[in-house]
Design brief:
Layout lengths: L2 H34 L5 H26 L7 E13 L4 E12 L7 E15 L5 E12 L6 E7 L2 E2 L3 H8 L6
């Protein structure tokens, strides 16, 4: 083969190699750019939120079942309910349990009813494996509905002084 033909072939080969490198770098940079474009799929996002709320519902129901108490000789359940909310921002599953009970046949007691609320993060556990308590409210109601006594009222370390103030502190945890 003549030197001239070899030089042409080498030149064509180098040009082709440079062209291939340019094409690869263009595709690589476009791929990176495409990967950085934020994409949203509302159907998928709502499905994830729905699944997370569903998981929170299940976890809360399991927790609530531990509250199911059998009435005994001393106490009779008046009200035992809960509500919950999944907070996707911090992956929190918050449950507010309301448990009210009456003292049975206790003529010596000046307080006949206890009204309690507990706000917990079902997903966070304390050292004993129980859901982390965020807030609690407890009130003893007198037999004659006078001189009711507030026993406990706080949410995240902030003191409160009534059921209304407790519920207003709790509402953000319940998506309200």
């Amino acid at each position: 083969m003549k030197k001239e033909n070899q030089s042409v072939l080498i030149g064509v080969g180098i040009t082709a190699l440079v062209f291939i490198i340019i094409i690869i770098s263009i595709f690589s940079s476009n791929k990176g750019t495409l990967n950085n474009i934020p994409t949203t799929n509302n159907a998928t996002d709502s499905t994830v939120a729905s699944t997370s709320q569903s998981q929170c519902d299940t976890a809360t129901k399991n927790y609530f079942n531990t509250w199911q108490t059998k009435d005994n000789d001393s106490f009779k359940t008046v009200n035992l309910t809960y509500q919950n909310y999944y907070d996707s921002t911090n992956n929190g599953c918050y449950a507010l349990v309301n448990y009210n009970y009456n003292a049975k046949d206790n003529p010596d007691s000046s307080y006949s009813e206890k009204i309690t609320y507990s706000l917990v993060n079902v997903y966070q556990k304390d050292p004993y494996g129980n859901p982390e308590t965020i807030g609690s409210y407890s009130q003893s109601v007198s037999t004659f509905k006078i001189n009711n006594r507030l026993d406990t009222c706080s949410v995240s370390g902030q003191q409160c002084y009534s059921l209304d103030s407790f519920l207003s502190l709790v509402n953000p945890y319940l998506g309200k």
